[in-house]
Amino acid sequence: MALAEQLIREIDERRDDLVVLTQELLRIPTLNPPGENYREICDYLARRLKKSGFEIDLVRAFGTPGDSDKYPRWNVIARRDGKRSGECVHFNSHIDVVDVGHGWSKDPFGGELEDGKIYGRGACDMKGGLAASIIAVEAFLATLPDFSGAIEVSGTADEESGGYGGVAYLAEKGFFDPERVQHVIIPEPLNKDRICLGHRGVWWAEVETYGEIAHGSMPFLGDCAVRHMGAVLDEMENSLFPALAEKRTEMPVVPEGARQSTLNINSIHGGQAEGDDDFTGLPSPCVPDSCRMIVDRRFLLEENIDEVQAEFLQVLKDVENKRASFRYDVRELHRVLPTMTDKEAPVVRTVARAIEETLGKEAEYVVSPGTYDQKHIDRIGKLKNCIAYGPGILDLAHKPDEYVGVEDMLDSAKVMGRSLIELLAQP
């Protein structure tokens, strides 16, 4: 108990440092796309962690989606080995943030502190979690410099666009090999009293329907690809969406609406490309000979990916049987299988105890409606002992006036620190 009390004091004394660290991270605009300032934030983290005795690896994910000389995909991995052999605990946070969007009343990259909240793009998702994990690690090292095993902290690229230039690349290079790392905590914003065990699966596809171009005043001489796509949408409304609503999961997905299978229509475009912003003329009168739609299907642990794909293809076949001259193509864009760590896994039980000791309540177990980098640690790294746990309210992610609460970060840091004591304090 004395060790935990000392750790808590160390974290509380670092309150101001936690605020400044979070603000400085927010003031580096790591927008993705296109992938700005990745090296700058990696260098910042490297300087910070090197002062605490960490060995630093800077890894560029050459050849991954989005990587270029203008926008290189940089990652930082910091490791500190203890005095004795033991297991390794790894805190992984993504460094990229999404587009700012409209509707802000604060400077998106100002890191403004107001009423105990720090505002900025990425405050919640997930630079607040990154800062909390660093404070937890530094407080633990001050409390117990003679620890067993190893600690790693990473800042990785491109989670917001699939993680292929970040955790996926590092997993392929062996950084998440179970022989190297035994416990992974990803400080995503799932609320400080929740442990996120995993996420649903995803299947993205692009559908294109074809027609024949003709003069818009004589559409009967052509074949409208947009009308064909309209028939696809109608069939989805009548058959697919009702079927998805009947599929339910035992996974503790939050919010409640995500405990069923879902499908989102990301975009539809038919006919001529839209003109540039400075073009003020009218489009030419043509029957569209092409229409494209991108769909985002989220599926459950109980579903098979082949069945998910076949179910959507059946919609297109049903339309084909009803419509003359219906022609189409389907292209898969992205697939991720669902993942869920067992509630009895060591990292789950450890963090659950730390939540109860810190917050005085039992941990809630949840599953994310969307995917995050656990997918790569699981499928590529073959490391199952992985969870998401961190400060912040998930509903604030990607919203205007995104913020993270200072008290939430402090409490989460205490949970992370207590977890390190349990996992690494024993000889």
From TrEMBL:
Required co-factor(s) are: Co(2+); Zn(2+)
- Entry keyword Zinc: yes
Q: What Enzyme Commission number(s) appear in the record?
A: 3.5.1.18
Q: Which UniProt keywords apply?
A: Cobalt, Hydrolase, Metal-binding, Zinc
Q: Which residues form a coiled coil?
A: none
Does the UniProt entry include the keyword DNA-binding?
no
| InterPro entries reported in the protein's UniProt record | ArgE/DapE, Bact_exopeptidase_dim_dom, Peptidase_M20, Peptidase_M20_dimer, Peptidase_M20A
Q: Where is the Peptidase M20 dimerisation domain?
A: 198-320
Gene Ontology molecular function, alphabetical: metal ion binding; succinyl-diaminopimelate desuccinylase activity
Instruction: State the similarity comment.
Output: Belongs to the peptidase M20A family.
The protein's name in its UniProt record: Succinyl-diaminopimelate desuccinylase
The organism of origin for this protein: Roseibium album
Ranked from the top, the taxonomy reads: Bacteria, Pseudomonadati, Pseudomonadota, Alphaproteobacteria, Hyphomicrobiales
Name of the gene: dapE_3
